[in-house]
Amino acid sequence: MNRRRRVYFLIALILIGIIFPYTPWGAFLRVELPEIVLAPEILFHFPVTGFEFPVSNTLLTSWIVMAILILGSFLGTRRMKLLPSRLQNLLEVAIEAILSLVNSVAGEERGKKFFPVVATIFLYVLLSNWLGLVPGFGPIGLKETVPPGEEAGEILIPIFRSPSTDINMALALALVSVGLTQVYGMQALGVGGYIGKFINLRRIIQFFIPGKDKKAGGRGRIGLLIQGLLDLFIGAIELVSEAAKILSFTFRLLGNIFAGEVVLLIMAFFAPFFLPLIFFAFETFVGFIQAFIFAVLTLVFMTLATTSHEIEEGY
User: Fold this and answer.
1) CA 20 to 30 Å from 265, out of 120, 198, 218, 305?
2) Percent of the chain scored above 70 by pLDDT?
């Protein structure tokens, strides 16, 4: 079969995949589209002392993600060999690639401290994103009767759902990333030095206490006041930017992964053959990119937070 015929054959298969589900013979291929909601669905309640802990489908999947990472790490490192097995070789390649990236950005000294956080975030988010693409993460679920007072019928509750589509998980990761950035910054620069990045009163104090500024004349003191006010303004912007990082991390991950899964569900419902493969390949790439961006931004912010920007100045 030459190249042109292969192209025609592929186009024909795609057209059949789009049209066939709407024929009487394709009725058996149709699946029921789950209810598309942003909030995670509760599967069951786990009884705790005096309290029932709700277990959602995203929480259940996050436990699976952690189990895979822990079990994979254990199996791949329990018997280290000079001639590595496939699993050990895969782990070594992944760890070496992440470590090389961390060291190239933060340096070896800080890289040793940042590496566990960056690698954990990347692997967890990547596996969470890709598990959501596994067939069955969506169409397979439990039927639940709609409560009285609402539209009659039943809805499908997916048993598994990617943790990245849960705002609670995305927000938790964002808080961990930004929170550890502040901790590392204080450890590197000291509590006073790090807080000084946001609340810098040095020039204001020099302006109001003449003894602190012996070399400044009249114009110099006015300039000192203006610079002090600029320091406060820039510090306020830095403080707002730290809070904005939490929102940026959260909604970037949540929005991209949730939207991608909705598109895949709709494509699988309307054209369950070859058309979804295009979006599936694209979402596989998006899942990797979102995990990479989350990890790299965490690394960059930690590096900047632990870098001193003090400049020796004289007046």
Assistant:
1) 120
2) 73
pLDDT digits (tens, 9 = 90+) for 161-212: 889 988 999 999 999 999 999 999 888 888 877 787 777 777 776 667 765 5
Distance CA 169, CA 183 (A): 21
Q: In sequence order, what DSSP letters do the residues of 164-220 get, joined into one string?
A: GG-HHHHHHHHHHHHHHHHHHHHHHH-HHHHHTTT---HHHHHHH-GGG-SS--HHH
Distance of CA 91 to the CA centre of its chain: 21
Q: How far apart are CA 301 and CA 295, in angstroms?
A: 10
The answer to whether residue 189 sits within a structural domain is yes
Parent domain of 72? 45-305
Asked if 142 and 157 count as a contact pair (C-beta separation under 8 A), the reply is yes
Tokens linked to 20: 């066939």
Which pair of structure tokens corresponds to residue 67?
């189990």
Residue 299 within a domain: yes
Provide Rg for the chain, Cα atoms.
27
Domain count, the chain: 1
Task: Phi first, then psi: give them for residue 55, nearest 5 degrees.
Answer: -110, 115
Q: Does residue 103 carry a pLDDT above 60?
A: yes
Question: Looking only at Cα atoms, what is the longest distance across the chain?
Answer: 92
Residue 82 lies in a domain: yes
Count the Cβ atoms, other than its own, within 10 Å of residue 291: 23
Query: What SS3 class is residue 51?
Result: strand
Q: Is residue 245 part of a domain?
A: yes
